[in-house]
Amino acid sequence: MSGHKKISGLLFTVFTAAIMLLSGACGGGENNIVIGDDGKPVVTGKTKIQFWAAVSASNKSIYDGLVAKFNAENEYQIEVKLVPKTTGYDSALGTSLKSNSPPDVVQVSDKYIKSYATDGLLEPLDDYLNNDNFRAKDGNGNNILNIDDIWPDAVRRFRYDVENYKESDTAPLYGLIAYVDPTVLFYNATQMRGQGINIISIAENELDAYNASNGTHYLPHGYYEYNTAPASGLTQKDGKYRVFNNLICMNFEETVQIGKIFTKSYNASSPSDYGFFTEWWFSHGWSVGGDCIQWDDTLDGGQYRFTLGDQNPNYIITGAAGATVNGTSYAEGELLEYADKIYVANNKADAGVAELLTSRVLYEIPSQYDAFEEFCRLSQARDKEVNPGVAGYGISPNPNTINNDGKSMYFTSGKAAILSVEMSTIVAINNSVGTRFEYDVAPQTQYREYEPDGTLTTVNGTAIVGKLAGANNCGSLAIPQKSKAKFASWVFVEWMASEYAQSELAKTGSQLPNQISYTFSDAYQKAANPLPKNRRAVAEMGYYQTEGDWAYLENGAWVDPWANVLNGPVRNGTKSISDFFDEVTNSTNASLKQYRGKK
Asked: pTM to 2 decimals?
């Protein structure tokens, strides 16, 4: 929609719910928006609301401009005051929400939304969202915000059933998405070209058509070394044609392969010390269908189990017909859920299960433990073992090595060729890199199996490809329960979540717009700004990524004890994986018993 259209007047129906929503909701004692005799709102004066936002130098001017535009154009005489917070936002917000005079509109991340909702500190938004009379319209009479066009996973993580402690698509909504911050792979394009790597951008679902149209022979890989040139004009290095496709995920093996090229202990001519850095196991574990916790109905009537070290194999469903396992129906290409793979492990002698395994309709892929071990090998030194007989790759700096510079500085200084980090880091990266080298982004690592000729492995006609996975951070705009201007706050929240405001906020390059259609449109994809260039990969990551373990439950206290050991002695090479699980499994399970709901 055009950014120049005014917010239209909203029509209200005279019924008790509407009066309850509006009474006393527009300023303590200032009831400046009331129901008229004809059922329409009557504005009797100015309503002032306070908006808390975590801002930075890169987005402060955009927030100022949006607030000024809203104040000038809204027809309710609502005046928003922006209270920018540059440091300590979450701590300050937690204290303010419990006070008697909190702000009227606040940013709340997925990490805190469950605890704030459970404590009754936030206003549910469904009564505003679901009543068309409460919705702002554009000049064509359409709602300025389409909730169905917002990233579904991001919407769901701000829906929470406080009685049953569970996210769901039907639970009350406590925040409208304000930003989506996916993790991507930043890569040093200058260093890649210097090592004879040809960079292309061809989406996997367009690869066959591209090859047919251009007479090329590219294979569906994120990174691949061809013996013969798949296209004309490519650079050759050491008898190979090295090709990096920044729109297809590298699999585990390719990540190591390209990482070695840019690690000095493997390649003395490498311009960087290390080839690949990530501190998250998500893209390894989630991609094969694993996780760090799973709900187990067999434990005391149901509770969480710490499953980061689960050694049961995972399975992909192959064949167009799909399959039913343990009463659960699966479509082709889906991965078995935890309870169903445990059922398979315990019932292999059952005729039905045995047939699914023999026919490879249930196709075995690595366990969560295997994927986690592979992740830990990245930063483990080559002369150390992550487990007996399993040495590290040494292609990634360990936490001790990177501690002095920090992960972003390791990339911007040229010490690491590829970095897995949040998209929001791009502003700092861009400011630091300047014109010293060219960089861009690519999707995260994914489990993928290939045949010796480089084609994808298929079983029963199904490509053996895991989940496209990774963690993204999401923030919402919420209304504190004790706000004295809830309706005016809703008008502002809805406008800030609409396409115009989101397109303005996206200009920093540090966040995705919340509307899917706009994110994939030419208006965003081909705009001169925002950074980075490869916005299609960022959009794909935004669509498929989910919340990190810090946001699974009511709070993240259960994560730190084992994560600190993982990101200390394990990844620094002083503790084996097996010793790690011996140390943390029982204590983590004991901690998880205190949590009440299902993620």
From this structure: 0.91
